[in-house]
Amino acid sequence: MAEAEQQPGSSPKDDVLHIPDNLSFMVPKKEIHMVPDMGKWKRSQAYVDYIGFILTLNEGVKGKKLTCEYKVSESIENLLALLNTLDRWIDETPPIDQPSRFGNKAFRLWYTKLDQEAENLLRSVIPPALGAAVPEVALYLKEAVGNSTRIDYGTGHEAAFAAFLCCLCKIGVLRVDDQLAIVFKVFDRYLKLMRKLQKTYRMEPAGSQGVWGLDDFQFLPFIWGSSQLVDHPTLEPRHFVDEKIVNEHHKDYMFMECVKFINEMKTGPFAEHSNQLWNISAVPTWSKVNQGLIRMYKAECLEKFPVIQHFKFGSLLPILSVKP
Predict the structure, then answer these.
(1) Dist. CA 290–CA 225, nearest whole Å
(2) Contacts with 83 (C-beta within 8 Å, 6 or more apart), sequence order
(3) If phi over 0 gives left and psi between -120 and 50 gives alpha, with beta otherwise, what is residue 186?
(4) pTM of the shown model
(5) What is the distance between the terminal CA atoms of the chain, rounded to a whole angstrom?
(6) Which end of the chain is more exposed for a tag (fewer CB within 10 A), N or C?
(7) What is the DSSP string of 266-292?
(8) Are the C-beta atoms of 317 and 167 separated by less than 8 Å?
(9) Are 41 and 159 within 8 A, CB to CB?
């Protein structure tokens, strides 16, 4: 996986999924306390494995529709059932009447249930032989749905969900041939869950850059979604600002689905409420959009202290420096 950045066309190496016999699982903890600690993160095994995971999936979905045929393993089905359970809990925890429009406090009740039940839910995904990994992996799931104190959600929480999936790959629950289903089934279902949470509990964007950010809440679906559209015979980046075209293609392409959600949630001219995306629509090819978004993700998310200070490190995504 360390080579994934230099060789984006390479397939994931099986040794990424190999767990050393002497590995002891641990509940991940915070390691980035001050801005100078960011150097530790960028040199860490966690960073190499995380960005490698993102790029491997980026390569895997290239040119493919959400509706294409792919294998759906039992592990994928179990993860979908877990996300469906979290969705059902939203229905069972309606928003409460409160003076403030944003940050409905019922989210805290919903989150408390996840906090208490996460490990039990994961036991339906992780086999008993790997039971010792459950507390470590569960931490990333709990971090992936937003902050219960601030009632906000942003790209750091999204990164925790990607880390959750990466850990499931590392312990062998998810495998190389699950790649398409990880993005098209599991991550897509996660996005729908997050949108429902955001709308139901009026969650605030965490660390939003307003109109100058790519999106209030997400980033990864724009990366993987632009990869899906590479070499598309008719759809070009300029087309995603056309609402009619977005509505025609949103079921096939994650990027279009994200733009559709923005169009539903925001009013006024697209160039005003989503300026960064508007600028991207002027890029000539989806390949250039994809490469630019990967660079932007590293610079605006992975290299920003306010985002990474909340990232947690354990045995599967360790803070230890990569061996030269």
Answers:
(1) 8
(2) 186, 189, 190, 193
(3) alpha
(4) 0.91
(5) 14
(6) C
(7) --S-HHHHSHHHHHHTTSS-HHHHHHH
(8) yes
(9) no
- The DSSP symbol for 153 reads E
Residue in the block written with tokens 């100078």: 36
CB atoms within 10 A of CB 138: 24
> Whose structure tokens read 């219960």?
148
Residue 23, phi then psi, degrees to nearest 5: -70, 130
Both tokens of residue 148? 């219960």
Burial class, 4, CB count within 10 angstroms (exposed 0-12 / middle 13-18 / buried 19+): buried
Q: Are 235 and 225 in contact (CB under 8 A)?
A: no
* Residue of 269, 251, 272 whose CA lies nearest to 260: 251
Contact between residue 147 and residue 107 where contact means Cβ atoms under 8 Å apart = no
Nearest to 224 by CA among 261, 262, 277, 187: 187
Question: Tokens standing for 52?
Answer: 């490698």
d(CA 137, CA 125): 11
Each residue's pLDDT tens digit, 78-109: 999 999 999 999 999 999 999 888 899 999 99
Residue 90 contacts residue 196 (beta carbons within 8 Å): yes
Contact 124, 178 (CB under 8 A): no
Distance CA 167, CA 49 (A): 10
Q: Choose among 218, 258, 292, 61: nearest CA to 249.
A: 258
Instruction: Show the tokens assigned to 59.
Output: 């390569």
Asked if 45 contacts 318 with a C-beta cutoff of 8 angstroms, the reply is yes
From the CB of residue 25, how many other CB atoms can be counted at a distance below 10 Å?
19
Q: Phi then psi for 16, rounded to 5 degrees? A: -65, -30
Say how far apart CA 314 and CA 186 lie, in whole Å. 23
pLDDT digits (tens, 9 = 90+) for 193-233: 999 999 999 999 887 555 456 777 899 999 999 999 999 99
CB 284 within 8 Å of CB 239: no
